Structure formats: structure tokens, C-alpha cells
Amino acid sequence: MGRAGVLLWPDHLVVPPASLLEAATIRSQQSSGKALSAPTTSDKSDISNSIHIRLVGAERVGQGFAELFQKGFVIAIEEGATVREVVTGPMKVDAQYLDGRINTIFLNGHTVDNVDAARVGDGAVLSLSAAMPGFVGAALRKGGFYAVMRADITHAQNNQYNAGRPAQITVRLYNMVAKELGPLFLARGACFRRSDLLEFFLGRSEIFWRACAQIAVDGQEVDADSLKAALITRASTEPLAFVQVMTATSEAHAR
Amino acid sequence: MDKILRIDMGAEGGPKAVATPVGEYAGLGGRALTSAIVSKEVPPLCHPLGADNKLVIAPGLLSGSTAAMSGRISVGCKSPLTGGIKEANAGGQPSQVLARLGYAAIVLEGKPKDDNLYKIYINKDGVKISVDNSLRMLGNYDLVEKMKAEFGDKIACMSIGPAGEMKMSAASVACTDMELRPTRHAGRGGVGAVMGSKQVKAIVLDDAGMPMRQPKDPEKFRDATKRWVDGLKKHPVTGEGLPAYGTNVLTNVLNEAGAYPTKNFTWGRFENCNKISGETEAAVETERGGAATHGCHRGCVIRCSGIYVNKDGQYLTKQPEYETVWAHGGNCGIDDLDAIAMLDRLDDDYGVDTIEMGATIAVAMEAGLAKFGDAQAAINLVHEVGKGTPLGRILGNGAAVTGKCFGVERVPVVKGQAMPAYDPRGVQGIGVTYATSTMGADHTAGYAVAANILKVGGYVDPHGAEGQVALSRDLQIATAAVDSTGMCLFIAFAIMDQPETFQALLDMINAFYGLNLTAEDVNNLGKAVLKNEREFNAKAGFTAQHDRLPAFFKKEPLPPHNIVFKVPDEELDAVFNW
After folding, report:
1. Closest Cα of chain B to A178: distance in Å?
2. Peptide bond into B560 cis (omega under 30)
3. Which of B351, B364, B471, B570 is the most core-located residue (most Cβ within 10 A)?
4. A65, A135, A175: best to mutate for the B interface, most B CBs within 10 A
């Protein structure tokens, strides 16, 4: 099985948490200047039809996206890659972080105990969480002592995959993992489902919008209402939306 | 803490208080003490609301000292909800204050011969019991304001709301927090109804002039406390996850697991759970100027609570916990966090258990009294409880009674107590604990995940033939032991993963009392507590048939994984074979 690679997505979509992961391997960098322009990428063929949104603002703008990471964002992988290959490959998260920090993993709603054995197929949902409280939280941990107590929902590798075929999956980030990795994915840009993004923006309060110093759609500076209108107008043709959020923290990560 | 305050509410000439030596109960605290007194002094076949039942209130072994996380208080009695023995515990300030006043326990006994309502004030000079019918049917918030006006703002209160006065089986005992708000509740099992049956509206504790409790070996205690706090702070659950998001951080992962009981346990996932998750809750609190990180008592270093404010930035309630958000949220199909926070506020004010109320409303929704997802209808139903209307009286007596009254088959209770926020079909191991716990369905009964560290009586192979039965047994033993220390159960994670932190806990207790407790002693304490409780329940009429989940868990596959509860009855019957 070949390692999952970034076939369809630009490098700036996936980033390691540089400041958080001491041993992170940053394999790509993208300019994070303050100019309001669509991100430059080496390969954005698969998102060329997507609306490009860029927000620049205070920390709370980025923090607000924690709610959206619960719904998930879309990445490209090679079908049949293991969870480890996906996380350390296209997502470019350091292996140490995966092994030490991401304690609870779900693949299509099944708890994953072995990240080197569980393989990911097209359309999968991969959810990443830190250690959880409670007895059940302990039972859900990957490879945990109490794993037997939830054996019926443990991931079993039954599916055969077309190894290496391009595939898309949804990645959900929860709790501390969203807090730590979220700003990095936002700094480099992430693809969200347009409907999720619209619902998210419609639910933002004035506090959020006041914290946005600049909003741009496809390189043009707009106001919040125009941003929402653009998402509504282009609903039928563009299921995904590419979002980049620059705050002081995310810029630091991006550097 | 060398005396027990016994208050005979039915004494000739009116209630009388006597402080007695702790005697045969020396060395016990928290659940160990409440269960020892109840099992020894309460007739198992008595009526829970009668004069023969006793309400026992006990701080933990280290309460009132500088030990971090030592602020849990246990409330025990024969439960009007389950008919068996009960220990419900809560955070807040009362445990620390009661311990500093020198009491190992307060025992409310007997029953007044009149119909007056009483308040009890306890300070360093003694105990004053007085009639105060002006408090009748006050909500806990207004009640505490009146106590504050009368006794000042340096007090701690334990009180009941209207539900307790009406002796409803879901009634709780409220404990005030650091801000003197009645937000911490000994919720489970109807302990508030027993306090109501004693006609005690409030116990006001005032430790002015009382010093912090001092350890026998201050040097060793200081050293152990430092290691203890360091261990809690460095652990990812107690040092990061819980402070950042509270217990509601569990919503997303339980939903992912397909074990998040939704719409009265008919589904294992709630579509809109992201709207009510801990991550969202913390973001809302922060954005509105509330607080996502806050302790429930002084000396808490985990600080898993928070302050929930409304859209105008005004205080509404403490940060609703995972169980509350689930019970009133996903379990009722409600995805409106503000409505859930309002339900939490009403539960606290009327004085009812949030788990029992949420489960009850879901059963009522299944019966057709309201539609799943209708937040306003849920709020209206809780108001019915507070007002004591005929419908409210039914709801206030819990899910089992409500299910019976409205002919609902799918009623998620064990021994009459509503199940918490983990579907036992998804996580079968917790079903073993739900079924066999002495307390009725209780997620905290098998919570202290320290069993593999204790390794007393042999190491349990989790993949062995006994599997989850053996694990549930050890978890229940460990939990009973932790409950007896008065420590917050959330310490369990740090002591599970970090043996040196578990040792620090033992060292703290030993340094404080001049003891030489070992892990085996702790294990034996847990066993002794469970033995007392099991014997009481047996005498109260419980048999193996009561250690079962409702039949629908074995018959109805739970989507999305479509699994049923599969642990055989004979394995459940083996849980307490040790």
C-alpha cells in the first residue's frame, strides 16, 4: 500500500501544527501575506470551481471555527491508505502528535484501536479527538485498557479498496485537537461544505463579524452580507468552499 | 471531624440537635459513612418518606483541608426513587464548610409532628433550628437570597426547592457554589424528597472563626499535595480537556460512537449535536462574556464548570454539564443551547435531578405529551413540576412513574432510576454497571478507572473470559472507594494513567490522619461499602431480577450500529462474586 499523498489538493490545505509539534515536519509553506487575494497554489484543479473566501481578523474569528470543524472539512487521499498515512500524509500532522495527543479516533463511527491497520475508503468520515473523561471516555480511547467494553463498535477492517485511487474524505476535529490543529488548517486554507459554511456564517453574531477586519470572496473585498449572498447564489454549482482565515496565531503558525 | 450532629426532627417539643462522638464510624467519610449509617440504622423495609428513614450528609475525609479536589459532599438515605440505598454527591462549598465546623456528618432523623417548615443554622457556637414558613415553595435561588440577607454572604447552603417540599422522587438537594448560587446538586435518587419529608428547607453552614483542618504531618502533607496538584495539572483530561470544555466535551465523541441516546433511546446519534457540544458551549460562553472555565468549589484545580450567560450577557446558570445537555438536549431532540441552559436553571431552582427530568420529558414526548425537539414544550413541562400541578406531580416522580402513567414501554430505568447519557448497547460495559449498581442506573458507579492500577486481588485481563464483568466489578469497587474520600471523581483519569498521582492521593490521606493506608486498604474499603449497600438492598427486597436492564435493550437494535445489549444474565449475576 502506497502512502497517501496530496493528489488533488494544494499543499496549503494541509499543515502540521508547527508551533505545537516540536518534531513537526513542515512540508509545504505558502505565503501568508496580508493582501486580500485568493491563495496561490501549485495545484488547485479540484477546487478551481470553488468559491474562495478569506477572512482576516482577531483571534475570536479563528476560534469561532471550532464549531465548523465539528462538521468536518474535505481532503483528498489515496483510497486504502491507513489512518496513520492519512493523518501524517495529506493532513501533514506529525506522527508524534498522532500517537501522543490524538487518543480517540473514529472511522465511520467505529472506534479505531490500530492506526496502522485501519484503512480509509472514499467518502469516509475520520474524526480525531484528544483523551476524553469518564469511564466511557476511557473505554473509547484507541487501544485502551477498557476497549473490550465497547467491542461491538470497534472498527474491523472488512472492506477491500482500490489502492491508490483518488478519494475524498471528511475530517472532523474535536476539542483540544480542533483547538490546536484548527488554526493551522485555517491559515493554509480548508475546504468546507458550502451548506455547512453558510449555516455557520448565518449563525455568527455581530461580535464575530466585528472581529473580522477584512472579508474577501475570490479576491474581492466584500462585507458580511455579500459573503453570505455569494454562498447562497453559487449553491447549485459549487458544493465546496475554500476558506482561509488569518489571525495573529494562524499567521504565526503559517510562518 | 470527630462528631456527628444528629437532629431529631420528631422530638417531643420540637426538633432537637445533639452532637455525638463519631464512635464506630471513625475513619469513614463520604459514601462510606452515609452507607454505613443507613445500612446500620435505617430499617430496609421502612417507607422512604417516613420517620424511620434518615438523611445522612457527610463531607469527605480530606474536606476542609487544603487538599485540592476534596470538596464533594455525600447525601445518603433510603431512596424514594429506587426503594434501595442511595448515595448522591455534589460539589460546591458545603463539604468544606461542614468539615471545618468539625462534623463528620449531619443525620436528620424522625419527622416533625406539625406541618411547619424548618431552617437549620450551624456555626462554631452550635445549632439553631427554627420555624420559617415564609420559605414555603421558594425556588432555590430566591431561598438562598433570603438566607444571604439573614446570615450574610460567607455562608454555604444546602436546600430543597418546591420539588423537595412536594416530596417528588426526582427531587435534589442543592448546594451553593463559590458565588453562593444553588447550582450544585446531590441529584440522584430523590434525596431532596427525604429532606422534604423531614420538613427541612435549608441547612445554613457558617464556618466563620473556624480554622482550616490541619494534617497530622504537615510536611508530608504539603509534599503529597504538591505532587497531587502537579499530577492533575499535567494530565490531558484533568489539566486541559475538562478545563477547556467541561464534561460536555463528551457529546461529539459519544455521538460518533453511536452511543449517544437520542429521542428516548431510539437512536445512537443526534444529527445536530454540534449545536450543543462542549466545544460550542464553551465558544458561546466566551463570546457572550461568560466563562468556559470555572471551579465549583474552592480548592478545585480541574475547574470543569463555567458560567452560562444569556444573549444579553446576564447570568442564567452554571455551565450545564454533559449529562444535563444530553438529557434535555439530544434525548429530547432539542438542539437549542439557550433552551437547555434555561431547563438547567429551572431544574436547579425547582430542585430536581437534571438526568431524571430530561429522561422523564423524553418519555413524556414519546407518550405524545409534546413533540421531540419542542424546547418550549419541555420548558413548560418543567414548570408543571415546579407548580405541582397533577401532571407535574407525575413528571416529578421520574421516568418510571411517568412511563407507567402514560403507557410507555420504552422507559430507560434500572431499579426505577433513569439511565444517564451512554447507551449500553453501544458501550456494553457500562450496561453491566447500570444493571448491577446498588444505586440504580448510574454512570458514576463504575467511573473510577483506577482498577488496573490497584491490581489488588489479581490483575484483570480485559480480554479474558470474565471480560467486562470483572472490569465492572473492579470499577465499582474503586468508585466506592473514591466516593468515600470525598474527592471529585474526575481525579480518576489522573490516577489511572499516572501511578505516582495515585500514590500522592494515598500519601495525602496518610499524612493527614497519620495512617499507613495501602492500595489494598483502599480496595477493601470499596468492597466494604458495596457489601453494606448490597445487604441493605437485599433486605429491602431486591433480588437478581432487579440487576437487569429493561427488556427493550435486548430486543431493539440501536442504529446506526444496530446492536442490542448482549451480556447474559448469568454474567450480570457474577459481578459481585469476589
Report:
1. 9
2. yes
3. B351
4. A135
